[in-house]
Amino acid sequence: MSDTAGDNTALEQELDRMLEIEKFPPPAEFRDRATWSDPAIYEEAAADPVAWWTARSKELLDWDTPPTEGLDDSDPPFYKWFSDGRINASAQCLDRHVAAGNGERVAYHWRGEEGERRDVTYAELLASTERFANALKDLGVDKGDVVGIYLPMIPEVAVAMLACARIGAIHNVVFGGFSAESVRERMEFSEAKALVTVDGARRKGRTAPIKEQVDEHLGDLGSLEKIVVVRATGIDCPMSEGRDVFYDEVCEAAEADCPAQPMEAEHPLFILYTSGSTAKPKGILHTTGGYMTGVTTTHRYVFDLKPETDVYWCAADVGWITGHSYIVYGPLSNGATSVMWEGAPDYPHKGIWWETVQDTGATILYAAPTAIRTFIKWGADIPAKYDLSSLRLLGSVGEPINPKAWLWYHQVIGGGRCPIVDTWWQTETGAIMITPLAGITETKPGSATTPFPGVSAEVVDEREGTPVSEGQGLLMLEAPWPSMLRTLYKEDERFVETYFSRFGKERYLVGDAARRDADGYFWVIGRIDDVVNVSGHRLSTAEVESAIVAHEAVAEAAVIGQSDPDTGQAICAFVTLRGGTEPSDDLQEGIRGEVAERIGKFARPKRIVWADDLPKTRSGKIMRRLLRDIAEGRALGDVTTLRDPGVMAELERQIAAEGDED
Ligand code: WT7
């Protein structure tokens, strides 16, 4: 193959040339086979969004009692959807596929860190879910009780979620990368009655003693009556008599049959805690009928899913909303075959994702830009060693994707033939809100393009709230949608205050800044709190980062606003260079020049800190808060959510070295 390291400059030049291309129309072969290829769908939905969503809900879900009502908007912002309908989320995900004769279809091709394989069929997943649902009942869990789930990426995490849904218990999943202390807080806030966890969790060849940590931090939590322990690694762990039980033992003791109970459409399905602007996490509450409608519809049509033939891989963690909606509920509801990957992208080696695509024949890959940028850093020669020709659609989620990373993903991973769907949404929205439709939309690298049919988004003026047809402002969702959060758990007032106080109770404040271009496309800039003001010029850290990474020597960059006596705030950039490149004054000037050229001289970083790596959460978000702390010489805030806490010590060393040079 010609794609050796020596040809990286050729790739670089090709991507640079491609930066000039404004729009990428749907490839003809894709469009011809796409389920949705007629743009009339947008008008159809806009004509009567409630009727349209109701039709999707009836088309894609099997209601036990079909709703006669769409939206109840009598008490905004406490909206209800399909309220007189009855449905069970676990039956949607499992029973109906087995009943239709698809029990032998693989639900998850699970791949473990040490090369283990488990192909779990729909029939097997149903059997496990029924047993565990009965086990939960035996442990005293009733409809409406909260059950915490603190598990790694193993099939049991889906079983635990679905078992809760089956009996109407509300799950509260905490991402495995959070500390036990964070778990405690979340269990306390939600008054969880039971917690499902593991003996130990593997990560890159090491095993963390999870149960031991749980005991240390949650041992005295009175509301927590039961702890169920999945023996995932077989390591010894402390078990408390009367409180703790092993998953395999309770399942064995439980009855095999557990018919799903139809739930009211507005029965709570889960709580998922997410970060807010204050230190206390927000408990986002999702309910059953509307959420299932939102995730099933978007998963099917955004990914153009063909359940019989596609192999779909969402490379997120189930502990985040992306995992809830697009590893568990969306794909299972649609009867899809998914890949579930336990580990990190660089263990046992840096080609493991591509080996997994090759080995499972994955046709759809849904990943975060930060992962893509990591792969760019590692080099195109790694994916080039694998056969990725099964892929037909690529997705991006979680943060704005810079055009260069989009193009690399398109060319290197997608072989130039796969459309990319850049999907914008949030924990709060439950499902994808702004996205291309791969068979219809002309994509522009870096833009999530336009709202999904039936979704009403606007960019509005910050003061007046009036829509901006072209230009920058606040992103708003202007009408209710089925999978919207219903409240913040036990904090109704904070719910209204956070999302529905800026421009009234009928307009949802997203918390992101965005820009609309002349074609009406949305360009999400980032959280409102990541906007930097330099000499009265509003700048987005994401926009400056995108400019910096456009420099050929740069692998990744994180930009923060640092307080500055002259300009109010000044841009400080933490920059990671591509392998083999050494920092130098010339390079600094080159990067500043790149920014000046792409945005304007005022946006040039005043300060550049060379960084070997950037502090990221386990979900891959750069923690700018920590960069602000370190740049300003303050004591570091909470670092427990970092993927690799060692990164901060290294940065401190680099900042100190920066001082020496001065
Ligand atoms: C925030 C929501 C969506 C699930 C994972 C994150 C940012 C998300 C995009 C995108 C630009 C994006 C926004 C949003 N974001 N997707 N495609 N383009 N920004 O969920 O943790 O609730 O975060 O992530 O800022 O508000 P989350």
- CATH architecture classification name of the domain at 532-661: 2-Layer Sandwich
Rg measurement, Å: 24 Å
Would you identify the CATH H-level superfamily of the domain at 532-661? ANL, C-terminal domain
Share of helical residues: 25-40%
Heterogens: 5'-O-[(S)-butoxy(hydroxy)phosphoryl]adenosine
Characterise the protein shown here:
With 662 residues, the chain is of the alpha/beta class. Among the domains are: 457-527, Luciferase, domain 3 (Roll), CATH 2.30.38; 532-661, GMP Synthetase, Chain A, domain 3, CATH 3.30.300. It has 20 helices and 30 strands. The protein has an eight-stranded mixed β-sheet, with helices on both faces. A seven-stranded mixed β-sheet has the order 5-4-17-16-18-19-20, with helices on both faces. The protein has a four-stranded antiparallel β-sheet with strand order 21-22-24-25. Helix 4 (49-60) crosses helix 11, helix 6 (122-138) crosses helix 10 and helix 8 (180-190) packs across helix 9 (210-218). It is globular. The structure holds 5'-O-[(S)-butoxy(hydroxy)phosphoryl]adenosine (WT7). 5'-O-[(S)-butoxy(hydroxy)phosphoryl]adenosine (WT7) is lined by residues 274, 320-322, 397-400, 422-427, 448, 511-512, 524, 526-527.
Write the layout of secondary structure elements.
Layout: H1 8-18, H2 28-33, H3 40-47, H4 49-60, E1 71-72, E2 80-81, E3 86-87, H5 89-102, E4 106-111, E5 117-121, H6 122-138, E6 146-149, H7 155-167, E7 170-173, H8 180-190, E8 194-198, E9 201-203, E10 206-208, H9 210-218, E11 226-230, E12 244-246, H10 247-253, E13 263-264, E14 268-274, E15 282-287, H11 288-302, E16 311-314, H12 321-333, E17 337-341, H13 352-360, E18 364-367, H14 369-378, E19 393-397, H15 403-413, E20 420-423, E21 457-460, E22 471-477, E23 487-488, H16 492-499, E24 508-516, E25 522-527, E26 531-534, E27 537-540, H17 541-549, E28 554-564, E29 568-577, H18 585-598, E30 607-610, H19 624-631, H20 646-661
Helix pairs in contact: 3-4, 4-11, 5-6, 5-7, 5-12, 6-7, 6-10, 8-9, 11-12, 14-15
